[in-house]
């Protein structure tokens, strides 16, 4: 944590890697998100300064000779432009915020996919997470475990238990 400031000229985004500043992000990762968003070659871009704070907010600047200085503020996973000097028409496409959202959604989708894979019924290839399962418990060898059958309560007028009772259906 804490405050850190460095002037770090870079000849290319590929050269931007881990920085000797607490809570700093890898600029290589950020730079990859710009790839294809600008016709400028990355050898013309240099990082002028990076600021990090205890509250995990970063300020950093890129210098593109044809555009001037573009300054971004990064807080957690959101990147927003705070100012742009000189020619505004050359500003980069704002792909970083959308890319972060895309990465987050892909991570969530991957978690859901893994959960579905773990809970798939191997016979029907249907996820038990997506619908009421046909079997409440997996089948076991009857000789290794005692048989357990549902019993009715003595003082209640309960009907026979049905699958709907376990799956949120009406009784």
TrEMBL record:
Domain of life: Eukaryota
Name of this protein: 3531_t:CDS:1
């Amino acid at each position: 944590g804490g405050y850190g400031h460095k002037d770090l000229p870079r000849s290319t985004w590929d050269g931007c890697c881990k920085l000797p500043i607490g809570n700093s992000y890898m600029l290589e990762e950020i730079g990859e998100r710009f790839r294809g968003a600008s016709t400028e070659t990355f050898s013309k871009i240099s990082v002028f300064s990076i600021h990090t704070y205890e509250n995990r907010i970063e300020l950093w600047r890129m210098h593109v000779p044809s555009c001037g200085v573009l300054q971004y503020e990064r807080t957690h996973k959101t990147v927003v432009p705070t100012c742009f000097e000189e020619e505004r028409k050359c500003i980069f496409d704002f792909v970083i915020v959308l890319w972060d959202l895309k990465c987050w959604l892909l991570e969530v989708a991957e978690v859901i996919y893994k959960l579905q894979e773990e809970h798939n019924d191997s016979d029907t290839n249907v996820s038990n997470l997506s619908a009421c399962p046909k079997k409440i418990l997996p089948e076991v060898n009857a000789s290794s475990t005692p048989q357990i059958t549902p019993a009715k309560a003595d003082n209640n007028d309960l009907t026979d238990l049905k699958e709907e009772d376990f799956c949120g259906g009406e009784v």
